[in-house]
Write the structure tokens for this entry.
Amino acid sequence: MPAPGTPPSYKRILLKLSGEALMGRSTYGIEPATLQSVASQVKEVVELGVEVAIVIGGGNIFRGISGDSLRMDRASADYMGMLATCINSLALQGALEALGTHTRVLSAIEMRSVAEPYIRRRALRHLEKGRVVIFAAGTGNPYFTTDTAASLRAMEIGAAVLMKATKVDGVYTADPKKDPQAARFKQLSYLEALQRGLKVMDATAISLCMDNDLPILVFDLTAPGTIRRAVLGEDVGTVVGKLETVLAGG
């Protein structure tokens, strides 16, 4: 554990949350206690002086691929999924501001009465002022996941790491809930993640990170204080990065 007063390992991070992460034990929607827990963890990190940007999925409300069962075209279904991310973004903004953490929601789909339009320079200015920036509505385009949106936004704002929050403590050789022999990777190269089909993120998102040398940290959001521990440099989760970095063990 880092000594008290240890400076953060990252100046600016992008945190990727799935919509399902906000459900808690529920099967749909947003569980208030879980929302408060996430907001509290983000506040802890902001108080360390880390600039925090967030991308949230919408799977707890509607997933674009679910449109097949409604006989919708994929583009329309994806737009519905993007709007679901806006609901989650506004909910998290409310939870953060209730804790006294200044927050801005920037949407890739214009809806000026509830969120600012996404403008890269505006996002950077908010981060520099110490505000949490939540990117809503994915990339604003159908056929792209919020994983891809997270990779894109992380690179646009110059984040030092993309932190992918999940319900398990890293990437495993198999589903640890189904296979007791599954082993957790401490480090993993981009190519290995793609070749093994480990579903760290979707292939487009991983490829974007690989092309731009953006490390991905996969960790367990359900463990209290994990985000803080990660930004302080503790051994948390699985790091996906360049092959030479992984081979060097750093």
